[in-house]
Every structure is written in C-alpha cells, then in structure tokens.
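User: I'm curious what two different proteins look like when written out as structure tokens. Can you demonstrate?

Assistant: Sure. I'll show them one after the other, since each token string lines up with its own sequence. Here's the first protein:
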Amino acid sequence: MTTDTPRTLVHLADSDLTVKTEDDVRGKEVVDRNDDEVGTVDDLVIDPQGLKVRFLQVGSGGFLGLGEKKQLIPVDAVVKIDEKVHIGQDRGHVAGAPAYDPDLVSAADYYEELYGYYGYPPFWAAGYAYPAYPFYL
C-alpha cells in the first residue's frame, strides 16, 4: 500500500505516557453496530510522537484472564462513545481480524494488514486524517 515506515507504537499500559481523559476508554465495553458485545478495552496502542490513540486493544472470551483473545481495532472504527465504545463493524468481522505473531510478521506489516482488513488507510499514508472524536451522548 505504502512504502513509508510507520512510527513505533506503544501500549499505553507499558509506558509512562498519558492521553487526554476523554481518549482513555480503557475498561469500557465495546459493542458492534448491532449492539452485540465484542469485548472490553484492555489497553490503548498509541503513537508516542503524536500522542494519538491508533488502536484499541480489546479482550474477549476467557475466564479470569485465561484464554482471553486480544484483538486490535483501529480507532477509525469507533463511531460513538457513551458508557460503551461503539464500532461500525460486526462482531464476527472483528473476530476474523488478522492475528499478530511477531515471529511471522513485522509490526509495521501487521498494522498495514489490519488497517486494510478494516477498510481504512493506515495513519502513515499520505492524506490520512485522524478521525474526529466520537461524540458523547
């Protein structure tokens, strides 16, 4: 898609960085466009240079943290935030997203594949515009 190398992204929980309070949706339930539960936001993946949230890390399934599946969802998929985070995709689409295995693919390639899977241009592509912040109801 693009030859530009994306910046390094970090998990907010693994850094000493902060984001604006309204951007911190950790702990909120994520629901799909049919209002079906997708999971809970476990962490935020951010661009430390721009302090922008790029992905939500969503955990689903499992019991007491065992067997829980982690998925990254581009922040571009968020359509509304109230007491929940609403995304414009189906739960099944999220479940079918590419899995990340650092032994098989680089993070940059994975991020590009993930953006393509969800139908959004990657944040490092020419002309990319950070999504407008979803309004609270």
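Here's a second, unrelated protein for contrast:
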Amino acid sequence: MSRTSARSGSPFEAAIGFSRAVRIGSTVAVSGTAPVWPDGSVDPDPAVQARRCWEIAVTALEELGGSVEDVIRTRQFVVDAADGHAIGQVHGEFFRGVQPASTMVVVAGLLDPRWKVEVELDAVLD
C-alpha cells in the first residue's frame, strides 16, 4: 500500500520528525494538533482554540482525500476540565452529524502553556 503525508507548516514537524497526517490505504491518522495560527499566536479562548485545532486537522484530512464524514474517532486533550463544555460544543460543530467515537481527557499540561486543547482524529475513507 502507498503511504502519503500531509504537512501543516508546524516547526515541530521538521524538528521532531512527524507529519500532520498520514494515509496508508484507506486509513488516515491525524497527529496531535494544537491551536496555533500561522504567525505563532494562540487565542486564549478555549472554544477558539478548539475550532483552530479542528480546522487544521480537517484540512490535513482533506489534503489526503478525506472529509469529516470519514472520521471514525476523535481525541481531545484539555488542560482544564472547566473548559470541557466549550471545547465539546466546538467538537459538535464539526462532528454532530458524524458522531465518531470520541474521547476527551484532562491532562496536566500540553507542550506550550498557552494551549488549552490539543486534538487528534482517525478516519477511514471509502
């Protein structure tokens, strides 16, 4: 099977050696995706951060031939449980019609202290 990758321009991709997303056959895995804008800024609002994460992740999925409808699993890592509702609402904006298997986990911290959420997704394309 062929392997294709998508990149998002994150400086961590080259430094750490990973791809934003990888497709092998009909399976796509999108890496942990943080709420960073192209200029390196991060909005402090957790809902804005979640929306930015999902925009980046879905763009990578689309670059590899998939769409939101192909998503079978999502993961959301949140730093503060109090932000869970706002972050979950944004998840619903993207996936309400698809309803993938989903996990939201509260973690002690993420790579950058400005980040309140980081997301991943897996998809199987028809």
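A detail about the second structure: The radius of gyration is 14 Å.
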